[in-house]
Amino acid sequence: MMVEIMMLDRIRMFFVYCMGYVKILIGAIYEENQKTAGCQPVGGGGCWHSNGSNPEIARGRYPQPPRRRIRQIRRVAWWPGKGENPNEEAKGENCEEGRRGALAEKEACGQGRAVQMSPPFNKEERLKLIGQVFTPELPIKTKDFFIGRLDVLARCLSVVERPGAHVILHGHRGVGKTSLATILKILCDVENRRTFFASCDSVDTYESLWRKVFKDVLIQRDGDGDEVSEDISTLESPFPEESYATFGASKVVEVLKAINDETVIILDEFDRLDEKFNRRLFSDTIKVVSDNLSGVTFIIVGVSEDVVTLIGEHASIERNLVQENLPVMPPAELREIIENGLQILGMTMDITIQESIVKFSCGYPHFTHLLALHACRNAVLRDRLDVQAVPDLRSAVSLSIAQSLDSLRSAYRDGTSGTRESIYEQVLWASALADIDDNNTFQAKDLLTPLSKILRRQVIYQSFIGHLSKLCNRDRGEILQKSGGKGRVRYTFRDPRMRAFCLLKCEESRKIAPLGQTELFT
């Protein structure tokens, strides 16, 4: 009996001690909270407010319950502000961050998961930086943002080192030729070569093009009028107006000799020159320069299938020209564009979303930049640094369609117009999903599998072969073009960028999350 009484006494004493510690803990938290709220403890359990608040509260008549105050302290401590004091978040701009944190905690606790708050960021600055990192409308102008194409760069630079050799850089629109040419100029400048860069346009003649190339060059002449050096004493333009009457290849050679440097001349968008430009005279110029000035290299950039289309036939200079065809970018390099941009922005994106952007781009960096730009912007506008499939990528798809080239949107509209029962639009989607060869062409039978998936029923060859033929006609926008003879007919998109546009339209029209599109790619 005595033993039981002693055990009960000990249990009672242990309980008393525990309650004492709890009271001390609550009192400490309560006192800390009063200091946080701008109060100082006074006798009688009340407090006084330095900001002159209600004296009834100051005398302690209406003290807040300790449990409520503990929750407030915990909430303030959970989302600290910018200063050393964690309670500074209640002031100024950090107050909004605290409210977002409280909502995040409530949502997270309801789902039974831990809370991880993203660090505060300046939304306006982040949006501005996104526009500088992902630039679908502009060529890349700095080495830091240039991704891939290292093998093509190396081959072009090796040609520059070869006396009498020149580069013809050609490929489809949108594959990044201008960006590559811009980086080539930067690299040639680093090697202490004199580099001239000019963009051609439809109004240029042979004379105006060279005047554009040498617009910043001034030549000193001696008493006999001959060019002798550059950048000393009395200088004048190498191409005065009176010289145009006898302007030719020899005149260009004289100016290049006067410059007396290893020179690289980059002519971008050479395909824009029309019939006013004398292409044969230009070919003669390349020949004369190759024979007399081994240190001068031309890099001619334009949209074409071959050299003949770009500068015309000239058998005597064929051995001086090195062709470099710039293909579409491989998926690994497109993925690198996204990863590099996310690293600069301090943002994240799930790998499945990156793969969707890469597949929608079809090898064209323009669409990679466009989709990544809008996806990241939409995430930041929602106060997030992680890009999500819904709604960020879905919003990016719709915005990219709306901001695509008007020529693509117009041709697509002409090709798919008609009654609701027509399947022209679905045939275009299937054409974009069809397997292509090295020349970007496909056969009608390649549409059987993707078109069956899109229509969710088995299709036969005869049900869509007429649609393919009509999509090659002008009244259907001439979206496709046909090649080959009977039994060997192949199709390709007249503008290769239309393939990416059709995939985006397919995704938008299906009205599902972008990640659901991946089933069509398999």
Short description:
The chain has helices at residues 2-36, 55-58, 66-78, 94-110, 123-133, 150-160, 177-190, 206-213, 249-259, 279-292, 307-311, 331-345, 351-361, 365-381, 389-402, 406-416, 424-433, 448-455, 465-470, 497-510, 518-521, and strands spanning 39-41, 47-49, 166-170, 194-199, 219-221, 227-230, 263-268, 296-302, 321-325, 348-349, 386-387, 480-483, 490-493. The chain is an alpha/beta fold.
Descriptors for this entry?
522 residues, alpha/beta, two-stranded antiparallel sheet, flat
Detailed description of the structure:
- The protein has 21 helices and 13 strands.
- By secondary structure, it is of the alpha/beta class.
- Strands 4-7-8-3-9 form a 5-stranded parallel β-sheet, with helices on both faces. Strands 1-2 form a two-stranded antiparallel sheet.
- The longest helix has 35 residues, at 2-36.
- The chain is flat.
